[in-house]
Design a protein that fits this description.
By secondary structure, the chain is of the alpha+beta class. The chain has 24 helices and twelve strands. β9 (486-487) and β10 (493-500) form a beta hairpin.
């Protein structure tokens, strides 16, 4: 047995563990603040210059390789190129018949043919072929490019590539081409692919509103003005840098048009959340007397782990979007992952640099945040009394009721594709959509191109096949009209256009598409070696919707499994990790229910700028699942890892984590601010994300999940014996604090009287006790 040191013997400092990488990074950034700021600003400027000179453009391409619509498009491109490619329309409306503007129309069509990558332009005054026959029992729209009264028409364009990928030159050229028509008093609007290219983005307005909303939330928390400005500055720099990198990525890979808006939304939310966690920890360390640079390093070593968990969870969830299948959704996942990565990097480097630059000025103002309100305590702190427990169980029951009510509408979720009819009335695509529907019927905005490939049919049998196809296509239930069959220049392909009786989002249009592919077209070529396809924007969107909807359960299951694997090393119990992972699906269900009620059922109304009930965009449920599962898993891991005794915080639900709650409120404010976007799909995602974050932060984590774990009791932390060898060993939470103490002799532990009956033998030497208690280890309210 070792003897205690002599009173006059020199005190030797304890063995130190090497400082962690996060702590070294934080201290270096704090001590070299100007260098870090210059590097970030220089990198930001370089990325912006490269993005403007070599960056790509964003374009929506829902085509799925190997699907019938993609095969039909390939057949058209091989045999009739003028009928393949993205379609755009120039819708014309005049007070008198358009035949009075023949010269201007001819000049406009000639100028439009000279636009980049334009395959063909069809003049409304020279419709090809005879008029179509109406379907029995249906309303027969005029399927040619000129309305019955002759006052509404459209120029039909076919592009080799989407106009959104060609830059602003296409719109400038189109404006120059139709200038004589506008000068003559003809109203001109752009529809189809041209309307998509002219759609306003509204990204800057959304980012400005998001910053203002987050600032208001942070100012409401008594941490001072810098608590609102510094996190937003770091998050904004990280997001702008991420958007520049996203533009460079778009030059090599196709990215959807909504990628910048979703990336900015997620990056601002994650960046603000991460910076706030670092600021709270740094502020407390300053109040405990630590040097600013040392406090920044210790904050990076403790709260920085939470930031890494948050960013890593979002990155893994975004990578999981590849399970949805289509490249469109994978592009969204790449955009979310890129901006989340830059936001985390900004939080771990730029925030310590700004804190080191401010010194102690940041820790001086504002109200003190109680330590017990920030970090749950472990053993030694009594829990609430019976009356408080009953009140907590009542609150948990009320929270469960609210969560169920929010999630019930999710059972009616019907994903679909939003067209220009859901855009604001100020958009030219919306005005073109309304003019087409009024003049040609609602189905004119969602035509279905029918393709019959008879290349393998002998020449002698082709006329009989064409007659049989005409007879079958003359009677199609659910179609308002079908154009006559057209023969390709080489005679190998027959094409026609079917106009649905309802708008493209209506279930009747989807039923018509399935009827065409399942029964009508197979009967049209029965007995011949011919292949049939239905292609066009409406068919492609329907195939995309069906595939993503089929993969959504797989994505939900994969997200819950990922959450289980992330939480298992923290909670160290199979039932606790499983219950926490499944509880993470509740905010997702609540977000689905909110978007169904507000958008699909139309309860949002004029407050959300909706023309009426609109379908939920196909990719929105996928993005909601990824982002909410990622952020919810990170929040659960941070909350569970906060106690210093190794016992999960969920076993002490009466101790709130105030910093996590306020960070969630700031994140929800950022998401909600993007509801002012001009794109209905972005508004849908923003409202759903805000609802999901609020449900997770106010109901699931503080009430429902602790109630479920309390019911499990000690069984929540059961794990098989072999799992102990796989889980990493968790060190006591106060070890980093001992390693973080400045150099010098440690303070002597206070004298403590021996309990009655204990021997007078000296105690074995142990780790020195801190001079003052660590934040969060004292009794409540300390």
């Amino acid at each position: 047995m070792s003897l205690p040191p002599a009173p006059d013997a020199p005190v030797r400092p304890p063995n130190r563990r090497p400082a962690g990488r996060l702590r070294r990074l934080g201290e270096w950034c704090a001590r070299h603040a100007l260098t870090v700021l210059v590097l970030w600003l220089a990198g930001l400027a370089a990325v912006q210059v490269l993005q403007h000179t070599s960056g790509g453009t964003y374009a929506d391409d829902l085509t799925l390789p190997g699907t019938p619509s993609a095969q039909g498009r390939a057949v058209l491109a091989a045999h009739e190129p003028t009928a393949a490619g993205p379609a755009g329309t120039v819708v014309l409306r005049a007070d008198r018949p358009l035949t009075a503007y023949r010269d201007q129309l001819t000049a406009a069509a000639r100028a439009l043919r000279r636009l980049p990558d334009v395959r063909a332009v069809r003049d409304p005054l020279t419709p090809p072929g005879p008029p179509s026959q109406p379907q029995p029992g249906g309303t027969a729209p005029v399927t040619g490019p000129l309305s019955a009264d002759g006052r509404t028409g459209y120029l039909a364009l076919r592009f080799r590539t989407p106009p959104t990928a060609l830059g602003p030159d296409v719109l400038a050229g189109a404006d120059h081409a139709v200038a004589p028509l506008r000068a003559a008093g003809v109203r001109v609007e752009y529809g189809g692919a041209l309307g998509d290219a002219a759609r306003p983005g509204g990204g800057r307005l959304g980012r400005a509103l998001a910053l203002a909303a987050a600032a208001l939330v942070l100012l409401a928390w008594p941490l001072g003005i810098l608590a609102a400005g510094l996190p937003l500055l770091a998050a904004l720099i990280g997001v702008v840098c991420g958007l520049g990198c996203l533009g460079l990525l778009a030059a090599a890979f196709p990215l959807p048009a909504v990628s910048p808006a979703l990336a900015a939304m997620t990056g601002l939310a994650v960046g603000t959340d991460a910076a706030l966690l670092l600021l709270v920890r740094h502020r407390r360390l300053l109040r405990d007397g630590a040097e600013p640079a040392v406090a920044a390093g210790r904050a990076a070593a403790t709260a920085g782990r939470a930031v890494l968990v948050c960013g890593g969870a979002v990155l893994l969830a975004a990578a999981g979007l590849a399970l949805a299948g289509p490249g469109y959704v994978t592009g969204l996942g790449a955009a979310l992952a890129l901006t989340a990565l830059t936001a985390v990097l900004a939080a771990l480097t730029l925030v310590p640099a700004l804190l080191g630059l401010l010194g102690r000025r940041y820790g001086g103002g504002g109200a003190e945040v109680p330590a017990a309100a920030e970090a749950p305590t472990g053993t030694g702190t009594p829990g609430p009394g019976p009356q408080a427990r009953r009140a907590w169980w009542a609150a948990a029951a009320a929270g469960a009721l609210v969560a169920v009510v929010l999630a019930v509408p999710a059972c009616a979720l019907r994903p679909g594709h939003l067209d220009a009819g859901t855009d604001p009335p100020s958009a030219t695509g919306r005005r073109a959509h309304d003019l087409m529907a009024a003049a040609f019927g609602p189905g004119a905005n969602g035509p279905l191109t029918l393709v019959i490939d008879r290349a393998a049919v002998p020449q002698a049998d082709r006329p009989a096949l064409a007659d049989q196809a005409r007879e079958v296509l003359a009677r199609i239930p659910g179609a308002a009209a079908v154009t006559p069959l057209r023969v390709s220049p080489d005679g190998a392909v027959l094409t026609a256009t079917a106009y649905p009786a309802r708008d493209p989002q209506h279930p009747a249009t989807t039923a018509l598409l399935h009827r065409l592919t399942g029964s009508v077209l197979p009967r049209a070529v029965s007995g011949y070696e011919a292949h049939t396809y239905v292609t066009g924007a409406t068919a492609t969107a329907a195939e995309f919707r069906d595939l993503v909807a089929a993969r959504l359960p797989l994505l939900l299951a994969a997200g819950a499994g990922l959450a289980f694997l992330v939480l298992l090393p923290v909670l160290r119990g199979v039932p606790a990790a499983a219950v926490t992972a499944v509880a993470g699906l509740l905010p997702v269900a609540a977000s689905y229910g909110v978007v169904v009620a507000l958008f699909q059922w139309g309860w949002g109304g004029p407050a959300l700028g909706l023309p009426g009930p609109v379908p939920v965009e196909t990719w929105v449920p996928v993005v909601l699942c990824a982002v909410l599962l990622g952020t919810g898993t990170a929040r659960a891991a941070v909350r569970a890892a906060r106690p210093r005794t190794g016992r999960p915080a969920a076993t002490e639900p009466w101790r709130p984590a105030r910093a996590l709650t306020w960070a969630a409120l700031a994140m929800a404010a950022v998401f909600a601010a993007f509801a002012a976007s001009d794109r209905t799909a972005v508004r849908t995602a923003a409202v759903g994300l805000a609802a999901g974050v609020l449900t997770d932060a106010l109901l699931v984590r503080p009430l429902l999940l602790p109630a479920a774990l309390a019911l499990l009791g000690p069984r929540a932390h059961w794990r098989p014996w072999w799992l102990d060898h796989l889980l990493p060993t968790r060190a006591p939470r106060d070890e980093p604090a001992r390693a973080d103490r400045p150099e010098g002799p440690p303070p002597e532990p206070p004298e403590r009287p021996n309990p009655p009956g204990s021997p007078d033998s000296p105690r074995p030497p142990g780790p020195p006790q801190p001079a003052q208690p660590l934040a969060g280890t004292g009794p409540p309210g300390a």
